[in-house]
Structures are given as C-alpha cells and as structure tokens.
Amino acid sequence: MRLSGHFSLNELTKSQTATRKGIDNTPTPEHIERLTDLCLQVLEPTRRHFGKPMVITSGYRSADLCLAIGSNPNSQHAKGEAADFEMFGVDNKTLAKFIKNELIYDQLILEFYNSDDPSSGWVHCSYSKDNNRKQSLIYDGKDYKEWLT
Q: What domain range is 102 assigned to?
C-alpha cells in the first residue's frame, strides 16, 4: 500500500526486531492515516527537495514492539506520527536543517550526530495533525538540548 508518491506502508512498518521476535507490527487505520500525513507533510517534501531516496530506519512501532526495544509504548512512533531516517549523500545535519527551516513538524531531533562524520546519527521527525510544536532538539546519547541554530 502506498502512503504517498515515494513511501509505502511496508517501509514505515518494517522492523527486524518485530520479525525476529514474532511481534505483530500492524497499524490500525488511524495509524495509517497519521503515517500518511507524516509522509505528505515531512517525508515527501524533504525527498523532493534533495532529489534522493530516503532510508526509513524506524517508523510505526506497535506498543509491543516499543517495549521490546526499550522505547515508550506511548511514543509518537506508536501513534504513527514519527519516523527516523537518513538520506545517503546528504549530511544528517543538512537534512534536519531543511526540515527545521522549511517545514511544519511537531518534533525534530538530530540524534547521535558528530560533525566529524556527516553520515553519523539520524534524523527523527514527527508530525501531528492537531498540534505541531516545532520543537527542535539535538540528542547526543546522554542529553537532549534545544537546537537554536
């Protein structure tokens, strides 16, 4: 099932952990609607801007999957509102900066980024149909810091 021009439901629900542990990671119709909004409002515009495919490393996570990986079962991933991703050939900070400056989003986190290695880390971004805070953070593995620049 296509969620948007370049993104499929399979891409946004695929999980090696779920497969390995036999965890059902099937989203509800409400989750699929939220994932579609995320694709249309954040992922598609970002892909179009850079003109390169994105790799979704984590999208929707069922509550059971969240627990299995040590995540909060009430996270935005579990609501179908968030994805973690990278784009080969684009510095993750450049990718996050585009989203921060050009798009509407709820929460944007540049995670585990090291300026000495532009391919390090990944970008986490969420979109909420009801309330987008435009909160931007950097996470180094220990602390979340507000991203001001």
A: 9-146
